[in-house]
Amino acid sequence: MKPQDLQRTAYTVECFLNALRLEDGLDRTEVEEALVHWLSDDARQKDDHLIYQDGTVSCYSQNRVTQSFALPQARQKQTLWCNAAKLSAIDGTAFSSNAKLVMLGTGGLLLAMPGLVPAQNPKDRQRSSNNNNNNNNNNNNNNNG
Predict the structure, then answer these.
(1) Which pTM value belongs to this model?
(2) What's the rounded Cα separation, in Å, for the pair 130 and 138?
(3) Three-state DSSP class for residue 89
């Protein structure tokens, strides 16, 4: 696999795990590494993919589960699909009943994409703004006194 393809795969898996609302830590890192290796394996079929449903990520090759990872700490309620380049929410009922992949899109999943959402929440920005104002006031007072 070319380095840029591996980088894209790693980024996509990171976004997938972010969409699951998994906290950073050793457990996540181990799963992330295993999923990237699985998706980037040269023996992988073009349509191989990951499915997250009900606290489990399953690796699908030729419509069969080859590996699974229990992720009880995941806080995502939707069923998600991911290959080496894309991720999407899918219809969990259609998938459960007849393994049909009905893509729902990435609408709410864009929040999982690093760099697309500001790193600070509004309270942090307000606090930062107040600190800047205090620093400016202190500097003004020091210059006037």
Answers:
(1) 0.69
(2) 12
(3) strand
